[in-house]
Structure prediction request, 338 residues.
Amino acid sequence: MLGLLCGVLAPHFLRLLAASRKRFSLLPLPLPIRLALGGLIVGVISIWWPEVWGNGYEVVNSLLHQPWTSTALLTVLVFKIIATAATAGSGAVGGIFTPTLFVGAVLGCLFGIATHTIWPHSTSAPYAYAMVGMGAFLAAATHAPLMAILMIFEMTLSYQAVLPLMLSCVVAYFIARASEQTSMYEVTLRRTREEKERLRLAATQMRELVRPADTVVPLTANVKEMTRVFLEYPVKYLYVIDDIGHFRGVVALQNITFDLLDDRGCDKKTAADYLQPHFDALMPDMALGEALQHFLAFQGERLPVIENNAQPLLLGVVYKTSLLNAYFRLNRSPAADL
Prediction:
């Protein structure tokens, strides 16, 4: 029963921590202020219940050697969970391994008190349930029952508790695994990977998103040649380069279409006659945010990337979809997927 209880509650504990991180991340406050807010919450709680402060080893040791009332256990459990959520959510440095042991020990002790009240002559002392509760809750949170069994046994060296510890850890693991596929270590690793990805994307420049430009024509291209390119690629602009490969501007499909419809004798015209020399372009070292502003002002699906020097060189194009994909990944909340 204790393994079942821990297997059900451990995933909710992890979800609470994830929800706290998400709530703190949504606050329009810089990281130092969020850290101060989390510390303030823990500090206020610690004024009345100093047991929630620190890693909780003193409380766990006390549970294994001294009797606690159920009221005191419930109170310290609630405040410890709130303090842990505030600490983890604000982004403070620290783990959730020892709080997991703390919560498991208190849950086990409460379960032991309840069973001892119902069956006073056929149950063990509450401290034995505290040992089993630590292991079961840890196994459910980490999805590592063997590690939990070995660690709790090494901590307590109690041979009498080995069998119920093993049974509770295995039950808690399977119940938690069925409820939540991700353990707390997997959550941490995923968050670390996401943060590294965000940092990488924040430094992303347009040279990393550039793709080859297929719709390029020379200045001497006639209308027939340009029309063939427009028919082959669904674009509104062709990029024009001179004889030595320097970018000169663009030719708009609209201008050629008007001449063809009005029969203005465009057979002898070339790309130089339709050239628009002033066209919005991106630089290879331009950041994501700046490039996005160019796309917001330009209602198109792609923009050329030009090497900014005395003789501009067309490096390729950046597509709006590539830019938006990178931008959304950069601005996605790390806790959004938890």
Notes: The chain has two domains: 2-195, 206-330.
